[in-house]
Request: fold
Amino acid sequence: MDKSANKLADSLQIELFRVNHTRLQQYWKTGILTGTFWCLYWNDAPGAGIIIGSKRKELMPDKLYIIPPNANLYTFCDSEEVSQYYCHFYMQGFFSRNKVIEIDLSPKLEALLNDAVNAWKNMDRNGYFPAFSLITATLYDAHLAGNSRRNCHDHLMEVVRRELMLNLGSPLSVVELAQQYALTEKTFSLRFRNAFGTTPYRYLSLLRYEHAGMQLRNTDASIESISESIGCADRNYFTRCFTRHYGVSPAAYRKRCREKQNS
Reply:
């Protein structure tokens, strides 16, 4: 990365959450893109994409796509042959003017993409570094193209985010959090929205169901115990909320993920 891109990366404090390369198959036919993280997508063939309003937007192999948090976009997949490389990541201080940022796959970005995909396929222990380089270079190009704006990084809100992630099962009181950090409730809520684009309650809900999805994908824990781990004692309510976030029930989501892992 050049000095300008490195400077951008340092200011945004990018934190990788998940990297994968997978065949989309059935997953995007009924999917919803939502969550507290940013997404970078590259599809190796036409045939899948997102729905913005009532219009379908196909993700093309000569482009990279960045989608901000809380986008709540439906997906479609008309082809069984599409594979996707994606990165989920957290950052602050970078705001998109659009629900989707589309960046041409320049020779430089294509080389970084190839490095990232190969590192993932080879299970390279340093595989996150090529992904990080790809994300940073793509964000830099997006910034140069005028598809984004930058705000100052709010370090206090980053501390708050980490506290929320460590206490997913605890009730949230914005009043108590504001007092804890010597802020008024109004100032705290405003700074939180400026940092993450949504309210503290909505953000915590997204964190909880991201965690629930991860537990369903990676563990054999019962749905009841997963529900309780995010502070939801009512299994039926948990199922309704989970379905609203992911488009399928917890049991169906686990089954789908296991089928993908075994394919």
About this structure: The mean pLDDT is 84.
